[in-house]
Amino acid sequence: MVTREGEGKSNNTHKNMEEGGLKNIPYREAIGSLLNLSNARRPDLRYAVNSLSKNQNNYTLEDWEKVKQVFCYLHGTTNYGLHYTGQR
After folding, report:
1. 79: in domain
2. Is residue 80 part of a domain?
3. Is the Cβ–Cβ distance between 34 and 70 less than 8 Å?
4. Which residues lie below 8 Å from residue 30, measured CB to CB, with a gap of 6+?
5. Which of 38, 39, 22, 24 is nearest to 71 (CA)?
6. How far apart are CA 70 and CA 10, in angstroms?
7. CB–CB of 38/27 below 8 Å?
8. What percent of the chain stands above pLDDT 90?
9. Which of 58, 52, 63 is nearest to 18 (CA)?
10. Residue 6 per-residue DSSP state
11. Mean pLDDT of the chain
């Protein structure tokens, strides 16, 4: 049987988020910032950010840890990028 990603999560996600202290985590704000960055400057982030954005309504602590990993990746790759120069 084929199931959708996230179907195994609890139906009481809002209750679980409040009990687990997850309601104070700025998950949506972080995802919004990463989406903006991935669209504007960092196409290497698109897959990871799009995958994480699917869980905005019922994220877990594991999802939040993955968001923090993306920010750590960004911190380590600040000098990476594509540099375009004029024609020679």
Report:
1. no
2. no
3. yes
4. 67, 71
5. 38
6. 25
7. no
8. 48
9. 58
10. T
11. 81
Q: Say if 31 falls within a structural domain.
A: yes
Helices 46-53 and 27-40: crossing angle in degrees, nearest 10, is: 150
> ∠ CA(56), CA(60), CA(62), 5° rounding?
115
67 in a structural domain: yes
Number of compact structural domains in the chain: 1
Report the distance separating Cα 40 and Cα 46, nearest Å: 10
The mean pLDDT value for 6-14 works out to: 49
Task: Give the span between the Cα atoms of 63 and 57, in whole angstroms.
Answer: 11
72-79 contacts, C-beta under 8 A, 24 or more apart: 73/45, 74/37, 74/42, 74/45
Domain enclosing residue 29, as ranges: 23-73
Averaged pLDDT, 9-37: 75
Sign for the pseudo-dihedral over CA of 73, 74, 78, 80:
positive
